[in-house]
Amino acid sequence: MHSISDSALTALHLILAFDPVLIAIVLRSLAVSGSACAIACVIGLALGAWLGVARFRGRGIVLTLLNTSLALPSVVVGLLLYLLLSRSGPLGFLGWLFSFKAMVLAQTVLVLPVVMALARQGVEDAERSHGEQLQALGAGTFLRSLLLAWDERFALLTIVITAFGRAVSEVGAVMIVGGNIEGYTRVMTTAIALETSKGDLPLALALGLILLAVVLLLNTLVSVLRRWRERRDGASQGATAAALGVVRAVAPIVDLLAPEAPAPHRARSHHEPVSPR
Predict the structure, then answer these.
(1) SS3 string of the chain?
(2) pTM of the model
(3) Residues 246-261: tens digit of each pLDDT
């Protein structure tokens, strides 16, 4: 128990003192996860929005494969990318193995199915609600996907935050293709695994606290966005209901105060008898 308390105090000292090794690992981890999240969101949001609107033959098979890829183990992704990026692999000429680019690629492959699946579900729900109106106005599949994605932009922003949380907490694939090289490819998750196995608990605990803080911040942002969206939708619906109530209340008064329009003059037919004076 004494060693745990000492490790916790040392970890707090490393965080408060902005230890250079600790800061380098944290910044590298955020850079890798941020780059992977940006790439995956640009591709995944576009494809997911299109997939939520498009109807084509074999769509069910595509959705099944997409949902299956959500449960793809990270170590399997790391192994496949290792085989592709190795010297004898088809992408060995790139020289990306055990590099920053390889880690970004690994996290992008892991995050992309998550972004696509969540974006597809959100846009497809919006398509059921008011997609027919856009289609009646002449909007094609691509244009409807863009309009519906923009309409659901706050929900898609939540997907971006969720994707970053998924990327920053990944360890298996990054360790396989990155190699966990000190000062070069070591990130928070791989450093925690290594330092724990070495018995260096203070550094591992400090990295764990920072990782928990990042995840907590992301969850807080998701919660704040969700509540803000609910209040915004509620305020919009309330304003609309209030406006309708005012119109309904004022309409009878306007009808009573407005002068009655005279009956339109009708031309007398030649066959109509002339009334005596």
Answers:
(1) CHHHHHHHHHHHHHHHCCCHHHHHHHHHHHHHHHHHHHHHHHHHHHHHHHHHHCCCCCHHHHHHHHHHHCCCCHHHHHHHHHHHHCCCCCCHHHCCCCCHHHHHHHHHHHHHHHHHHHHHHHHHHHHHHHHHHHHHCCCCHHHHHHHHHHHCHHHHHHHHHHHHHHHHCCCHHHHHHHCCCCCCCCCHHHHHHHHHHHCCHHHHHHHHHHHHHHHHHHHHHHHHHHHHHHHHHHHHHHHHHHHHHHHHHHHHHHHHHCCCCCCCCCCCCCCCCCCCC
(2) 0.77
(3) 434 444 443 444 444 4
